Amino acid sequence: MNKTRMLARECLLTATALAMSTAAVVHADDRLDFEVQGAVTPSCGLALSRVRIDLDTVAASELGAVGDGSRWRGTSFTGVDCVGATKASVTMRAAAHPADPRYIAPVGGAQGVAIEMRTADGQPLPPDGSSPVEFSWAGGIPALAFQARYVRVGPLKAGDAVATALVQIQWE
């Protein structure tokens, strides 16, 4: 037998042996199982990502003594494209007033005043970022309504008193 024929025969035997060894490993009933985990959570978007509460001009005489407050003024965040959400848990983070951490410290020329926040149904909303207030609705479009007012916390000085707060919403 010549060398070319012998080499071809060895290649054929090697290919046949390789095919047989591969066939022995793969069985017709072999299978691979996948385990999939996860969940779809409720969600809502917001019609506006920023709302404003205008406390208007308040006369110092309306804040006669420490603890006195101005009229409550309100606004709300409105949910859009809500799927499965019937509740919301809301926290607020802002600079706490040093005289009373339940209130927001305003910036501006005014002194002796703080800003108090609450839900429209009266749940206090402190600026600590960790004390949630709860909202719920049976269906339809959710509205997360809030109110704010000035509260006297010390000796008054007239001037601007404005603040910004970050609100975090967890939909359930």
Automatic annotation (TrEMBL):
Location (main, coarse):
other
Gene3D superfamilies per UniProt: Fimbrial-type adhesion domain (2.60.40.1090)
Signal peptide: which range, if any?
A: 1-28
Q: Which UniProt keywords apply?
A: Fimbrium, Signal
**InterPro entries per UniProt:** Adhesion_dom_fimbrial, Adhesion_dom_fimbrial_sf, Adhesion_dom_sf, Bact_Fimbrial_Adh_Pro
* Record-linked SUPFAM superfamilies: Bacterial adhesins
- Compartments in which it is found: Fimbrium
- Domain Fimbrial-type adhesion residue range list: 39-170
Which residue ranges does UniProt annotate as crossing the membrane?
A: none
Judging by the UniProt lineage, the source's domain of life is Bacteria
Q: What family does the Swiss-Prot or TrEMBL record give for this protein?
A: Belongs to the fimbrial protein family.
Protein name as it appears in the record? Type 1 fimbria pilin
Organism of provenance: Luteibacter jiangsuensis
Please spell out the taxonomic lineage of the organism that makes this protein.
Answer: Bacteria, Pseudomonadati, Pseudomonadota, Gammaproteobacteria, Lysobacterales
